[in-house]
Amino acid sequence: ALISMRQLLDHAAEHGYGVPAFNVNNLEQTRAIMEAADATNSPVIMQASAGARKYAGAPFLRHLIAAAIEEFPHIPVVMHQDHGVSPGVCQRSIQLGFSSVMMDGSLGEDGKTPMDYDYNVAVTRTVVEMAHACGVSVEGELGCLGSLETGQAGEEDGVGAEGTLSHEQMLTDPEEAAMFVRATGVDALAIACGTSHGAYKFSRPPTGDTLAIDRIKQIHARIPDTHLVMHGSSSVPQEWLAIINEFGGQIPETYGVPVEQIQEGIRHGVRKINIDTDLRLASTGAVRRFLAQNPAEFDPRKFLAVTVTAMKEICVARYEAFGAAGQA
Ligand code: G3H
Ligand code: 13P
Ligand code: NA
Ligand code: ZN
């Protein structure tokens, strides 16, 4: 059944778990996420980015998610629009039937330029008024995502500030977060706490303090009723990097956010954990390996089926690690 983000995250907060929010662009991702949720009895957040709408087209995306709900009627599903760059984008998603939207007013309409607090409040508040009138939840974002190690926003996938960020820009201010939530009425707030989008988060193996856990604690203490969202939460599995590179890929040494640190975040109010890159890496590794080992194969269903298996394994692991398993 389709449910709102608020309904799901209220339940998650009450029971102390986190929900992975996976990006969807195609049938294989949708199927992997749903089969994993079915196998572990987990609730689902599927999110579509602007890039996904460009790739698949809004009608195909909407009907893919509708098909998932039809085939798995016992699994609660949130259909979320990721990184809306304007109230207009969010309005169209609400009209399309999304049950949750993100207004990312930390960046301008180009999805790159950091914007000031007043702009962010104005656009986010506009979306909250529109969305809440329709029973749709809203996620806002305050602060600029960036790796505390590299100072980079990780904008290679087109989402994130351009250039190098200061340490303070990359950490959401707890007082400002409290003001922002009061001024906008958002249901969930994406915070900057040391993560960044994409595969290149850290150049060295992460130590225990990859994430600014203290900052998460301080923010949660100020706004305990607002669900915290962690973007850029892929763990960048080293096994998949090795497979990609073994079968012709060229991905330099890189590291993601350790699952244990995400679990620590969940203990301090993080409820929605955005993951896209890990499923991309697993798909690419699975396809490269399959085609290298089966050079005479030309039925795309064969190499696409292995992507479903690879992605499903990661989804199962995250549902279990974040405590969502058994909560559907
Ligand atoms: O937040 C970013 C997601 O990874 C979506 O990326 O715009 O390439 O679909 P995308
Ligand atoms: P990753 O690039 O770490 O998977 O993050 C995805 C994300 O935050 C989508 O909004
Ligand atoms: Na989002
Ligand atoms: Zn994001």
Structure explained in plain terms:
The chain has 328 residues and is of the alpha/beta class. It has one domain (5-321): TIM Barrel (Alpha-Beta Barrel). It is 45% helix and 13% strand. It has 12 helices and 8 strands. The protein has helices spanning 5-15, 27-40, 50-56, 58-71, 87-96, 117-132, 174-184, 213-222, 238-246, 259-266, 277-293, 300-321, and strands at residues 19-23, 44-48, 77-84, 100-103, 137-142, 188-191, 227-230, 270-275. Strands 1-2-3-4-5-6-7-8 form an 8-stranded parallel barrel, surrounded by 10 helices. α2 (27-40) crosses α12 and α3 packs across α4. The N and C termini lie close together (11 Å). The site of sodium ion (NA) has 7 residues, from β3. Glyceraldehyde-3-phosphate binds next to α3 and β3. The active site is at residue 82.
